[in-house]
Amino acid sequence: VQLSRIKGSKDHKGKTSYSKVPDKDKPPTKGLSQSPPLVLFFGNITKWGPQADGFVYSDDFTDKYDATGLVETHVHHCDDLDFKSKALAKGFDPFTSPAQALDNGDPKKSNHGGEALLVHSYLFSIPIETDVMDRILALCPGPRRFISCELRVKGVSILLIVPYFWAGEGLSARSLAIMS
């Protein structure tokens, strides 16, 4: 139990003894390391632009979250390199899946989706192995609607996945296919 305060009390003979009592504001950490928790953020931003950029790269935000998952960035594949370059300059390892063009009109203006995973560079994150990703994509026909990476923390590999499900369908067959 995490202990941080000392409390004095008198026994039946009037003798004062002091003991540590748990801090009520902090959860017990018995058996756990004293490392800070990994804090993740996930959000549907509707479109990457100046407002989302200013929010995600603000000092308050970057100090609070270790990794950020974003869907519906609408970042076209032509702009993906610029998106990644800025993320790298801001201290993130970026993993992205560009928005998918729609059949009607200009693909830079008429697209949907786009996923991004931004992991602080002080953490060890790597892309999913190519052969594993190839198997996953073979099971999920159609355009990719997720981004993922492997995060290694204290000898443990954590798979971070940011899926973008079909809107308004609930757990439809198409959304379930993304999860598979």
Q: Work out the strand percent.
A: 25-35%
* Largest sheet, spatial ordering of strands: 3-4-8-5
State the shape: globular
The radius of gyration is: 23 Å
Q: What does the largest sheet look like?
A: 4 strands, mixed
Any overview of this molecule?
The chain is α+β, with helices and mostly antiparallel strands. The chain contains five helices and eleven strands; from the N terminus they run βββααβαβββββαββα. The strands form four sheets. The chain has a four-stranded mixed β-sheet with strand order 3-4-8-5, with helices on one face. The N terminus is likely disordered.
Question: Which helices and strands appear, and what pairs or packs with what?
Answer:
Layout (H helix, E strand, L loop, with lengths): L2 E8 L5 E7 L17 E5 L5 H7 L2 H6 L2 E5 L8 H10 L2 E6 L2 E2 L9 E2 L2 E6 L3 E3 L3 H10 L6 E8 L2 E8 L9 H7 L1
Parallel strand pairs: 3-4
Antiparallel strand pairs: 1-2, 4-8, 5-8, 6-7, 9-10, 10-11
What attributes does this structure have?
four-stranded mixed β-sheet; 22% helix; alpha+beta; globular; 180 residues
Question: In a few lines, what is going on in this structure?
Answer:
The chain is an alpha+beta fold. The chain contains 5 helices and 11 strands. The strands form 4 sheets. The protein has a 4-stranded mixed β-sheet with strand order 3-4-8-5, with helices on one face.
